[in-house]
Every structure is written in C-alpha cells, then in structure tokens.
Amino acid sequence: MDIGSTAILLARAQFAFTIGFHIILPAFSIGLANYLMVLEGLWLLTGRQVYMDVFQYWLKIFAVGFAMGVVSGLVMSYQFGTNWGAFADKAGPIVGPLMGYEVLTAFFLEAGFLGIMLFGRHRVGPYLHFAATCFVAIGTLISAFWILSANSWMQTPTGYKTSLDGRFLPDSWLHIIFNPSFPFRWVHMVIAAFLSVAFLVGAVGAYHLLRDRQNQAARTMFSMAMWMAAFVAPIQILAGDFHGLNTLEHQPAKVAALEGDWHAEPGQRLILLGWPNMGTEKTDFEVSIPHLGALILTHTWNGEIKGLADFPRDQRPPSPPIFVAFRVMVLLGVLMAAIGIAGLWKRYRGRLYYSNWLLRCMVIMGPAGFMALLSGWVVTEVGRQPYTVYGMLRTEESVSPIGLPGVATSLVAFAIVYFIVFGAGFFFLLRLMRHMPIVGEGGPPQGVPVRSAGLTPLPSLHPDPRHPTEPRPAE
Amino acid sequence: MILPLIWAALIAFAVLAYVLLDGFDLGIGILFVAEDRDEDRDVMVNSIAPVWDGNETWLVLGGGGLFAVFPLAYAVVMPALYPTIIGMLLALIFRGVAFEFRFRAITRRGRYWWDFAFCSGSILAALCQGLALGGLLQGVRVENRHYAGGWFDWLTAFTILCGIALVFGYALQGATWLIWRTEGRLQRRCRRYAGYLGVILLALIVIVSLWTPMLNPRFTDRWFSWPNILITSPVPILVALVALRFWNGLRRREEASPFLCAQAWFVLCYAGLGISLFPLMVPPSITIWDAAAPFESQIFLLIGAAILIPIILSYTAYSYWVFRGKVHPGVHYH
C-alpha cells in the first residue's frame, strides 16, 4: 500500500472515529431534549411532583451530554476542510448551505435557550421556561433535519448539475433537500434517537427499581420507557424496512453488501450468518433460508436482487463490516421490540415493577439503542463506499493535500483527547445515573446567583407553590 | 457581483461576533492563571455558564458559512492552517467540557485537573486563533485550487506575535467583563489586571499594525497612499481615543465602560484587518469573487440568513438580559 492510500485510509479513520463518537451525543440530545419536553409538559398539565423530579434528574445528565455534543460537533464542522478539502471545494456549494441552515435554524436556537433551560427556571417562570425547553427540543429535530438532508444527498444526489471543473452546482434546492433517501433516513434516525434514550431511561429506572420498588421517579422512568419499547420499537422495524427498500432502489450495491449476496438468483435466499469474502466472491460459512430474502426485499416469493459480483470490482463497498453491523442492528432491534412486548404482558398482569428478570434485562439493554444506532451508521456510511457523493465523487478524489504525517499526528491527537475527555464524560454520566432519584430532585443549576430577578420577578419573590425551594443535592 | 460582497460582510460579522462574545469567555479561562481560589473561580465560571455555548456557535457559523458560500477559501485555508485549526478544536473540547466537568469532579485533584484543562484550553485556543489569523494575513500559497505550501508556513515570528496578542486581548476582555459582572475583591483585582493588560495589548496592537503593511506591498499601498490615508487614518486615531476613555473609566471605577472599550479596540483592529485584506479573501491571490460559491448557493442561504440572523440576535440578547446583573459568590452553580 503506497503512502497516498495510507493517508486516505487514516483520513477516513479520523472521520469515522470523530463522527462515531459524535453521533452518540446528538442522538442523546435529540431523544433526551424531547423526553424533557414531555416531562415538563406533563408536570405543567398535572402538577404532579414526580414529573418535575424526573425532569430535574435528567436535566443534570442532559447538561453534561449536551456540552460534550457541542464540542465534538464543532470538530465535525471543520473536519470537511481539514481532511476533505477537495470534497469541500466540489460539493461545498450544495452540502455547505444545508449545514449553514442547520447552524442558523438549529444550533443557535438550542444554544440560545439552553442557558434558560438549565439555569433560568426561577428567573423566567414556569411557562417561559417550558417554552425554552420546547425550543431546545425542536432545535434538535431541526438540526437532524438538515444534517440528514446533507448526508442523504451524498447517498442519493439529485437536483444538481456539474460544472466543467467537476464541481456540483445546485439546480433545484427542493430536489436537493428532499432527495429520495432523505425522508426515510430522517424518520429512521429520529426514531432511533428516541428509542436509544428510552432504553437508557428505562435501564436507569430499572436499576433503581431493583434497589427500591417503591421509588416513584424510577417507576415513572421505567413505565414510560416500556411504553416506548412496546410501540416505537416495532414502528422502527417497519421504518427500517421502508428505508431498506429505498436503498435497494437507489444503492443496490449497498444492499448486496449487507445481505452478503454475490449473485442474483430467483427466490433469493436470506443469509443469516457467514463471512463475505471479497476475494473469492462468495460468503463463507453461510447459514441461509431459501426464498426469505426475496420475500423481504421484493415482497415476492421468486424475486431476485443483484449480487455484489454484478458490480465492477472498483464499485463495490467492503462487505464484511457492513454485513456484521447490519446483523447487530437487526438483532438489537428485534430484542428491543421483544422487551417491549414482554413489558406489555407484565403490565397487563399488574407486575410491571416486580419482575426481576424484566428489570435485569432492561438494565442490560440500556446501551442497546445506541449500539444499534452506531451499527446502522456503519451500514449506511461504509455502504456508500467507494464514493463520498454516491456514484459521482470517489473517496480518493475527495481528500485534502495533507500528507501522511499530518493526518497520522492529528488522528493520534484526536484519539488521545477523545478518550480522556469523553472517557471522563461517560464516567460522570454513569455516576449521575447511579444516583437514586429523590423526591424534590435538585436540578443542575437553580438560579445562577444574580441580584436582579429576571423579566417576571414574581416567581423569584413569591415562589410558585409548584416549585418548592429545592434542596441542593449533596455534591 | 454584489452577492459575494454581502456574504463576505456577513461572514466577517459572524467572526467578529465570535471574537467579541467568545473573547471574554476564553479570557476568563486565561485569567484562571492568576485567580486560584475556588470561590472566585466558581463566580468567574458562573458569570458565563448560561451564555458560552451560544457564543461558541458563532464560530460554527463562521466555519460552516465559509464552507457554504466560499468553499474554495474553506478548502484552501483549512489545510494551510491545519495544525492551528486542529489545535484550536482540541483546546476548545477541553475547555468546553470543563464547564460541566469541574462541578462533577469528586476529589479536589479531579477538580484541579479540570480547572487546569479549562485554563490551558482557553490559552491554547486563543493562541491558535491568533496563529491562524497571522497565517492568513501573511498569505497562503495556492496552486490549482489546492494549498501548495509547506507544513509550518503558518509558524513565523509574525504569527507568534499575533497569537500572543490575541491571548492578552482575550484576557483583557475577560478581566473587564468581570469588572462589570462581579463585585468586591475579585472586581478590584480585575481592575488591576485590566490596567496592566490594557498597556500590554495596546503595545502589541501598535507592533502588529506596523508589521502588517510590511508583509505585502498591497497592504502598504492600501494604508499609506493618497487618498486612502483619509479613510485609514481615523482607525489609529480612534484606537487612541478609546485608550483615553478606557483609562478614564478604570480610574473612575466605572463598571461597564472598560468592557465596552476593550470591545471597541477589537472592533477597530478588526476593521483594520478588513481594510488590509479587502477585496482579498485568502491573500495573496484569492479574492472574494474567486472564492464565492455559485449564485444559487449564495442566494439560497442568504434568504435564510436575512430572516434568521435578526431573530438569533434578538433571542441571544434576551438570554443575556435574563442573566443580567452581578454574580454573587457563595451560591453554587450545581
């Protein structure tokens, strides 16, 4: 392998590494911000203390996760230029404005109201505070909208024309934004974020229920999570199926790679396990079920799909990582739906909070959503190879003229910093989640100490009976 | 042809907003060098905790906007300034998470470590931004739409000077912000720091300003030729006037004016930078029009920016308003 292709490989590793860390955190923010919005809304509606307790409990965790998301996201916005300068120059006119809209419509909205959401509850009063929470939650969804539009355009580019010097120029913004794979990817990703956080919340609830069955806040967390698992996990499987069919239409090589199929055959079999061999063009150690592949992908008994060998060698994505990641994702998705159904049954029997095995399973499944989400991204991004803009711009034509030493040094620096910083961050998050939720849970930051009282001074002078003065957590 | 100009102005505005807003909060990190009592450090961090995230978003807009509307400049400048950009990003990571982590550390040593990360991250980020600015000013070699210079082109005496100047400048911003937002002993000490830092910064501004025109004959011509000098000479005069107002404000123990004067210095230096560079985007060869994205890209994002930036400014102002007033010691953030 020559130096140039090693540099490309390291640049790819750096992007994969930084975005792999990053993607967890926005998913966490999307899911948790919306959960917090629901909790605060329920609290305003019902006035039940337990909703405020759960809100405050997760708000502290949200603050830590959000800070990590901001800084790792900042890295991403510069990564296109540092390592992928040629891509930035050629695809910038299209991808750039989409990301510009993300900053203008989402990042500022989130950052502008985050301060009030975290620190301002006693300065602005409950309704304005709820509005701030809503803005942050909506901001996360808008952010997902734009970034997934940009990502999907790279997967299924439409609405552009090419200039003589090989740049992509916008032709129709409507077709660029709503490119064919975007609606599917957006829905699939947002649901994935909701489910990931639901399982995290459920696992924390279950962990505390195992120690104290009567803890109301833990019960609320667990119960809400189980509703999500029961209804949203199956919806997600359905959404994934639609997304897969869309991929089959636009990126058949990706589907062939994730299925491990090498040749089209009538009544395509479904390969359950095996190891795709890029050299011999067959899947080793294959365990398969006849006709099932045709049934899933074409919804007919005797349908066939193209295999990897039907594509020229230099247009094939590397099958093994895609094949494995896809199976991990599907397995976790099925397990999540299964837990949801088990929860429904236990709830029907009135034993939801007393089933030891269900609680333990839920604790183990805590990270399942995030793992499935990462696997899904491996499938879709590695499956886009060997292109950055699918079918149009190859990965090796996208890199910056940065030599091997530069890319290698920065990769090592990122790896070290990320492990220290995010290692510490995940440790702090786990420690916060280990702390048992209490009645009158103190939020992160009540009242950054300032003399004046905010726009509506009443709440701070005569505390609303619904906000008893919170005892500060002993930390 | 007017569109790239409008965008250049908007990107310049975003970067200026970043420098003015994140400047004082990086400065607070830099002042951790001098302030080592836990109580004071908590007050310092609390004074910016609700707003720092919004401040940093302007940097994302600067980078993202450059990518969107001047992709060539973005694609050339990032590789040219590679180590400074990576260094800045890594430093901002440390300092950004330290806001939360320093309150979450269990042991004193843990907390000390995150304070150290906050402080050194702030210094390194400021230094890297100064180096990057200097590197851009002194020019970037470009061939065939690619960066064509060496590894360490960005590292010269001039860029190091710019880096140091920005560290002191941000420290001054931080000190004057604290004069405004705190009281008692911390405020008194910040007044003293602001006095020293003002002298140092003014000296550095003079050196950088005299050095810049020597980098490129084009800059010399821009500043000193007739009739340009009619337009350019008010800049140094205003710097001097602001300096008078600044020391007057410090002497009379005013609260907000030192901060506003420090900001005014930054605005003036920034204007000077614009005078030198215009109409270049990446000296010595790429102009605003060379670097511009196609009309369709620029107009599409401009519509959004025209509507959204005023809205963003108003809710940012609202957020500052909500958290106005003095920050008291003793009441803890977490």
Task: Give a written overview of the molecule.
The complex is a heterodimer of chains A (475) and B (334). Chain A is mainly alpha-helical. Chain A has 2 domains: 252 residues, no CATH class; 181 residues, no CATH class. In chain A, the strands form 3 sheets. In chain A, strands 1-2 form a two-stranded antiparallel sheet. In chain A, 55% of the residues are buried. The C terminus of chain A is likely disordered. Chain B has one domain. In chain B, a hairpin with a 3-residue loop joins strand 3 and strand 4. In chain B, helix 1 runs antiparallel to helix 6, helix 7 packs antiparallel against helix 12 and helix 8 packs across helix 9. Chain B is globular, with a radius of gyration of 20 Å. Classes of the chains: A mainly alpha (475), B mainly alpha (334).
Please summarize what this structure is.
The complex is a heterodimer of chains A (475) and B (334). With 475 residues, chain A is mainly alpha-helical. Chain A has helices at 3-46, 49-82, 85-119, 121-124, 126-155, 173-177, 182-211, 216-250, 252-259, 292-298, 319-348, 356-364, 368-382, 404-434, 458-461; strands at 160-162, 168-170, 270-277, 282-289, 387-389, 393-394.
Secondary structure elements and pairings:
The complex is a heterodimer of chains A (about 475) and B (about 325).
Chain A: H1 3-46, H2 49-82, H3 85-119, H4 121-124, H5 126-155, E1 160-162, E2 168-170, H6 173-177, H7 182-211, H8 216-250, H9 252-259, E3 270-277, E4 282-289, H10 292-298, H11 319-348, H12 356-364, H13 368-382, E5 387-389, E6 393-394, H14 404-434, H15 458-461
Antiparallel strand pairs in A: 1-2, 3-4, 5-6
Helix pairs in contact in A: 1-2, 1-5, 1-7, 1-13, 1-14, 2-3, 2-8, 2-14, 3-5, 5-7, 7-8, 7-12, 7-13, 8-9, 8-11, 9-11, 11-13
Chain B: H1 2-31, H2 38-46, H3 52-69, H4 71-80, H5 82-104, H6 108-137, E1 142-143, E2 146-147, H7 157-181, H8 184-215, H9 217-224, H10 228-232, H11 234-251, H12 257-277, E3 280-282, E4 286-287, H13 288-291, H14 295-322
Antiparallel strand pairs in B: 1-2, 3-4
Helix pairs in contact in B: 1-3, 1-6, 1-7, 3-4, 5-6, 6-7, 7-8, 7-12, 8-9, 8-11, 8-12, 11-12
